[in-house]
Amino acid sequence: MNSIPRKMIQRTEHCFRKRALVTSSFGSCSFPRNSLYQQHPTCAFSSSSSVSSRSSNGDDNTRSTLNNSVSSEEVSKFSAMASTWWKVDHNPLISMNPIRMSFILQQIANQHKINIEHTSSAYKPLSNLKALDAGCGGGLLSESLARLGANVTAVDPSEEVAKAARIHSMKQNDTKDIDYKGGMSVEELANMEEYRHSFDIVCVLEVIEHATDPKSLMQGATSLLKQPTDTHPGGLLFVSTINRTAKSYAVAIVGGEYLTQKLPIGTHDWRQFLSPKEVNQLVQNFGMEEVDKKGMILKPPFWDLKWYLDSNDFDVNWIGSYMHK
Amino acid sequence: MIASLSRKVNGNVQTNFAVSKYSRFFSSSNKLEKHFDVTIVGGGAVGSALANLISENIPSLSVALMDARTPKSPNDAFNIDSSSKTCFPSPRAYALSPKSLSLLGDDIVSKLDEKGRLAYYDTMQVWESDGPAVLQFNHQDIDDTDKLNGDILGAVVEDEPMVSCLWDKMKNNSHVELISPTIIEKINAPSASDDESKVEVMYKKAGNDNAEPSNLTTNLLVAADGANSFVRKSDGTFHTVSYSYGRTAVTCTVEIDSSIHKTAFQRFQKNGPIALLPVWNEDSSKRQGNCGDKTYANIVWSTTPEEAKYLKSLPEKDFVMAMNDLLQSGPTNTPPLFPTELKNSLPRPFQSAMNGIEMLSQSANTGLTMSGMTERRQGFRVAPMITNVVGRVFSFDLNLMHAKNYISNRICLVGDAAHTIHPMAGQGLNLGMGDAACLTKNIKHVVESGMGIDTNAGLDYALKQYESSRQREVVATMGGIQFLHGAFGTTFSPAVHVRSVGMNMINSIGPVRRKLVKVATGIEDVVSI
C-alpha cells in the first residue's frame, strides 16, 4: 500500500461511496457503504494490467514508471482485492477460467497440431510453449497455464498484486517457476529486447476494457508474439473482454454489479467495452487477424455461475484468438 | 529401500508398482505418509465405479480406494470354482439404466453378460390394484439415436459380481491403489480458510487390533460408504434430513414357471408396489459351475412393517400364493366415485348427476385404456407364475434421507451417503452412478483447465458445480417418487379416478410416454463425461 498515495485511496473510496448512493435507489440492493470493496472484492483481477479510470486526469505522474495506459487509481482498487482472489464465492473469474482455458487449449491444439487428449499420467499439453499473462492479477490464468506445462511470464502494473500472486504460486511445484513482474506494463515488457517476439501465447484476458489506450496495449502485446517462420506458425494472441451492447449493460453492469453484486460497483465502465469487430480492427493495425472467436455465456440457473462457450452469442462476454496474417 | 519402506507403511502394497511412484510420497514430510489426489472411502458399486471412472478419464490423478472388506474375486462371485454348493441369484441386485450400464464400462458389462449375470429388460409394465390403468413402456419408446445399449430399458445386476468385476479391473490399474481390508480411525479435514491444506486419514488394517496405524493425505476425500456413512458422520459439517416412508421392503429370489419375456412388472397397491424383476439371463447355457437351468426373478415388495412381518412369518407356500395373488390379477374397474350411502341420501336430480359423472369417468378411462392398447398394438402382459422361493427372504425399512450439503472442506458425498430413496422406481444406484459421473466430469474439467484440485479455487469450483447439479437431479427424482408414493397410497376414490385417468393418458399419449421413458432410463440425464 505504501507505494500508492493515500490521496488515491481516499479518492477510490469516495468514488465507491458515490456509487453506493446510486445503488440504494434500487431498494433491496443497498448495502453498508464503508465496507464496500472489502465485502465484494471480486471481478476482473486476472486483469489489472492496463487499467484506466474515468477520473484519471493527472494521476499518471504519480506512477511515472508505468506506461500511460495504466492508471494508479485502478491499481490501488485491484490491490485491495488481493485477499479474496482465490475464493470461488468472491471471484467470478474462477468460474470463467475453465472455459477460457478450454478455448485457449483448443486453439493451440489446432495451430501447433498437438494432442490435448488426457491420456497419460502427466497432463502437460503446453510443454515447451512460452506464455505471457498480461495483467496477471492474482495469477489465476498464470497458474493454469503453468500447470499445463507452459513456461509462464506474468506482468501486472501493481507490485503488490504480483507479490501476492508470487506467494500463492510458490506453494505448488507446478507453478513455482512463474516469472512474475510486478509494477510493469505490457508496453514496458515489449521494450525489453529479450522478450520481444519471444512468446508462443500472449493472453490479454479481461484487461483491454480497463485500458486507457487499447491501441498501445495491443501494439505491445502483438510485438511480444513470436513471428511466423517456416518452421513455426507464429504466436497466438488471446483477447477476452465484454461487448458494448445494450444487453451487456443490462447483464454486466446492472446485473453483475448492482443486482447480484457479484462484482464491486464501478468495476467496469460500459463505454470502454469493445466489440469483436473493434478488437479485430485494432490488431489489424499490427499485422494480425482474427482466427476464431467464441461468446462466453451463462446458462440458467445463473447462480451456478456455469459458463459455456457459444458460437453465436457475442453480446456480452467473448474471447478471440489472433495470429499474424 | 524406498520399496521396502512402502511395504511397511501398508501391508497391501503391490510389488508391481513402480518405485518412482512412491518416492514422491516421502519427499515432502518426514512422516511416512502417502498422498493421493483423490481418496474414496467405500468400495461398493458407486465407490468402485467412481474410482474406475476417475482413473480412466483423468489419468493424471492418483486414486486410493479404501474398504473394510475385500470383495470376492470374479471367479468366486460367479461361482465358477465352487463346485459343491448349488447357486442361485442374490436378491441384492440393482436395476441399472442404460446410462448407468455405459458408465460401468463396456468391458464390465460384457464380462457380466458373458456369464449370464445381466438380465436385460425391454418392457416395463406398471398397473394398479383398484383401477383399469396400465402403464407400459418399451424399448420402442426410445429413439434410435438415444439408444445406448441396444433395444433395452435397463438390466438387473446383482451387487456381488458387479463389484468384484470393478475391483478386478482396478487391480491391474497402476493409477488406483486399493487399501483393504482397512478400518479408518480418524479423519482430519482442513478448515475452510486454510488454502492449500489436505485431508488426513488415519487408518489401520482390519481384523488386527495390534496393527500399526498408517496415515495418508489426500486433496479430496469422497464418502461412498453408504447411508450410514462414517465419513459423513465423523466430519460433523454435513447435515441431513430424513423421513421414514413407514414402509418395509420384503425382498427375495423366486423361481418362475415360464419366461418373464424381458419384462419388469410392478403393481401398485394401497400399501406400496410389488415388483417382479428378471434376474440372470434366461439362457442357462451361459451359466457356469452348478448354476442350473432354472428361470429366476427377484421380488421387491414394499408394504407396511406389520404386513411385512406377517409375510415373513408365513409358510413358503402361503407367501408364494400371496405374491401370485397380486401379480396374476389384471387391471380392475375403478371403485365407485361417490359412496353409495351418500348418493342414496341425496335428492334424485343429484343422484342422476352423480351417476352421469361416474359413467363419464369410467368410460373415459376405459376408452383411454383401449386406445392405449390399440396404439401400442400390445396388450396387458400376464406375469409368470411363481413356483417357490429360493434362498432367504430379506426385509429392510425404507427411509428417505438427503444431505443438505454434499460438499464440505475437501470432502464430498456420493451415492447413498448423500441420498437414499424409495426403491419403487429402481433409481437408487442410478442416482449414485450419476453422482460418480458428474463428480468425474467436473474434476476433469478443472484439471484440464490447469486449475488442479490441490488449490481451493479449482476444487471448490468443481465441487460446487457437482453439488448444485446433483442436488437438482436428486431432489427432482425424490419429488417424483414422493408423488407416486402418495398417489398410489390413496384410497380416496376421486383421487383414484384422477390417478387412473392420468396413468392411462400417459400410456396412450406417445410424446408424454416417450419423455417419461427417457427420464426413467437416464437418457435425459445431462451427465456425460
Automatic annotation (TrEMBL), chain A:
GO terms for cellular component: mitochondrion. One of its GO terms (biological process) is methylation. The keyword Cytoplasm does not apply. SUPFAM superfamilies: S-adenosyl-L-methionine-dependent methyltransferases (SSF53335). It comes from the Eukaryota. One of its GO terms (molecular function) is polyprenyldihydroxybenzoate methyltransferase activity. The keyword Acyltransferase does not apply. Transmembrane segments: none annotated. Keywords: Methyltransferase, S-adenosyl-L-methionine, Transferase, Ubiquinone biosynthesis. Residues 46-70 are annotated as: Disordered. Residues 46-56 have a biased composition (Low complexity). This is Polyprenyldihydroxybenzoate methyltransferase. It comes from Chaetoceros tenuissimus.
Automatic annotation (TrEMBL), chain B:
One of its GO terms (biological process) is ubiquinone biosynthetic process. Its cofactor is FAD. InterPro entries: FAD-bd, FAD/NAD-bd_sf, UbiH/COQ6, UbiH/COQ6_monooxygenase. The keyword Iron does not apply. Signal peptide: none annotated. Gene3D superfamilies: FAD/NAD(P)-binding domain (3.50.50.60). One of its GO terms (cellular component) is mitochondrion. Belongs to the UbiH/COQ6 family. This is FAD-binding domain-containing protein. It comes from Chaetoceros tenuissimus.
